[in-house]
Amino acid sequence: MLIAQIRPALVLLILFSLVTGLIYPLAITGVAQAAFPVQANGSLVSRDGAIVGSELIGQSFVGDGYFHPRPSAVGYDAAGSGGTNLGATSATLAEVIAARVSALSDGEAVPADAATASGSGLDPHISPAFAQVQVGRVAQARGLEAGQLAGLVARHAQQPLFGIFGEPRVNVLELNLALDDLEADSN
Amino acid sequence: MTNTNWQSYGGETTMSHLSQMLGLTVQNFVSAASGIAIAVAVSRAFARSGVDRIGNFWIDLTRATLYVLLPLAIVVALAFAALGLPQTLTGSVSATTLEGANQTIAMGPMASQEAIKQLGTNGGGFMNVNAAHPFENPSAFSNYLAIFSMLSISATVVYTFGQIAGRRRQAWALLSAMTILLVIGIGAIYWAETAGNPIHVAAGLDPALGNMEGKEVRFGQAMTALYAAVTTGLSNGGVNAMHSSLTPLGGLVPLFLIQLGEVLPGGVGSGLYGLVVFAILTVFVAGLMVGRTPEFLGKKIEAREMKLAMLAVLILPLAILGFSAVAAVIPAGLAGPTNAGPHGLTEILYAYSSAAGNNGSAFAGLSANSPWYNTTLGLAMLAGRFAYIVPVLAIAGSLARKAKVPPSSGTFPTDGPLFVGLLVGIILILGGLQFFPALALGPILEHVLMLAGQTF
């Protein structure tokens, strides 16, 4: 009786391990690499032949001449994602937010994504409002006109598809690459 | 519960990807297939009468894997890959950022694992932060596809139940009750999160975007609320935002949905038998009101089934509240929470709820990697899984032996709006009354303190 139960269990374990553990993921890998090579390899972005990051993965920007991403609990470590996990009544969180707000503005309220850490610590996007907050700083650092930069931000703002799928957002890496191109063109 | 401390598999070698595929992916398929097999067994118990057998588990397991899960997984995995989930055997890629810093970007065969993780409502992520990670969930579309995949089997198993038991209208009634509760849950999270956090507004945040701590810009409040409710209503346990950073009431909803037993519509299979237990309780309460022997789908529900159903329902509060109460007073338990004040209690409650309900999502603020938490969370997980399945299968066996009674004028119809309303009430009252005192001391108290501007 016991052996009658164990035998099919073992046979099925081996069969399923082969089919679902090897054939399935390897076949999907083969088809995905052939059909969607860019996405299957991490949506990498290159400039002058060098990989500068992934379109989907946020990266750190600290210089005044670039648009900054959201605060990150893991410093944009793309091999170790994470959030703060701080709760709504955390004193630490309230202090950190107040400090970030005062670094960004002189008493005006800032967009919520500008002073809060994302869940993944790798959020590639910021809200269009947060990008506009940074226009003045970037324009000054690069010696560009604020109006020209505001237009650049508006052109790179992605709207929700059909108005409902997603949120308005700006991809920081894409925007900063466009910023570098803008300067290269004007030189 | 391991996913409280799950590390990213970043930087791992191809060999580790192999163990990931052979270990986790196979496990994902087989546990989902077992859920389907048990749900089908329960369904047959209602369809058959006067028998002592309800099918062959191995045949059901094989059919569920090869004919249902595998074809769906192939389609969903390819769709995920098209939407941007990496599917490669490369461990990581090194990039030089625009400012010249080095960034190591971890990836792997993610689309194939994500597909079965969602279809089987397993929820274990490839990356540390699960579906909040831009590679696991790169866009609004992948978010919808993930939710669709989660629902596609666990909700249709209910329909299968109706089909096998020959009562399709019954399946629609059960699905309606699930949908009503799930929609209320989604709405409540959305309301709480868009309302935001007055403490943070006082610190200088514009309230327009709501509470963004622990959330991704591409999801915003709407898709975060949708995912948080569905992942806990379905026993999936993946997250696309950090639940610990939700507002107190926004965090209460996922916690409560787990505590209800994850029947909305629950994990693959497990949700169905949880709901059948609640349905049996509902006909019993209705029977008490009119003083008639309760019947469900033509089978008389008698003392033996009622005792077993109550046993099943009492196991969750016993495991959740029992362990939480001890953890909230002993030093080994108090060492766990990151956050002070009522949020700390919520972290403990969430951990045991998630373990006992086999959800796997976490208020990840809790450092669960200590001997106390590892042991007790493991025990809660075993109790929630096996101590729950045994009485349910005993009910199924007992019902299968019974003869069907033809419906009479005194039979309470269990496929109409009245039954749906009663069922929703029974689920809410049973869940609410058992857990309300603990919830009042955790998230509800924290909400009141948040409005008063109190921090810890």
Automatic annotation (TrEMBL), chain A:
InterPro entries: KdpC. The keyword Nucleus does not apply. It is found in: Cell membrane. Keywords: ATP-binding, Cell membrane, Ion transport, Membrane, Nucleotide-binding, Potassium, Potassium transport, Transmembrane, Transmembrane helix, Transport. GO terms for cellular component: plasma membrane. It is a single-pass membrane protein. GO terms for molecular function: ATP binding; P-type potassium transmembrane transporter activity. Part of the high-affinity ATP-driven potassium transport (or Kdp) system, which catalyzes the hydrolysis of ATP coupled with the electrogenic transport of potassium into the cytoplasm. This subunit acts as a catalytic chaperone that increases the ATP-binding affinity of the ATP-hydrolyzing subunit KdpB by the formation of a transient KdpB/KdpC/ATP ternary complex. The system is composed of three essential subunits: KdpA, KdpB and KdpC. Belongs to the KdpC family. This is Potassium-transporting ATPase KdpC subunit. The lineage of its organism: Bacteria, Pseudomonadati, Pseudomonadota, Alphaproteobacteria, Hyphomicrobiales. The gene is kdpC.
From TrEMBL, chain B:
GO terms for cellular component: plasma membrane. Pfam families: KdpA (PF03814). GO terms for molecular function: P-type potassium transmembrane transporter activity; potassium ion binding. It is found in: Cell membrane. Its main location: membrane. It is a multi-pass membrane protein. The chain crosses the membrane at residues 20-43, 64-85, 141-161, 173-192, 272-290, 311-334, 377-397, 418-441. The keyword Transport applies. InterPro entries: KdpA. Keywords: Cell membrane, Ion transport, Membrane, Potassium, Potassium transport, Transmembrane, Transmembrane helix, Transport. HAMAP family: KdpA. Part of the high-affinity ATP-driven potassium transport (or Kdp) system, which catalyzes the hydrolysis of ATP coupled with the electrogenic transport of potassium into the cytoplasm. This subunit binds the extracellular potassium ions and delivers the ions to the membrane domain of KdpB through an intramembrane tunnel. The system is composed of three essential subunits: KdpA, KdpB and KdpC. Belongs to the KdpA family. This is Potassium-transporting ATPase potassium-binding subunit. It comes from Devosia pacifica.
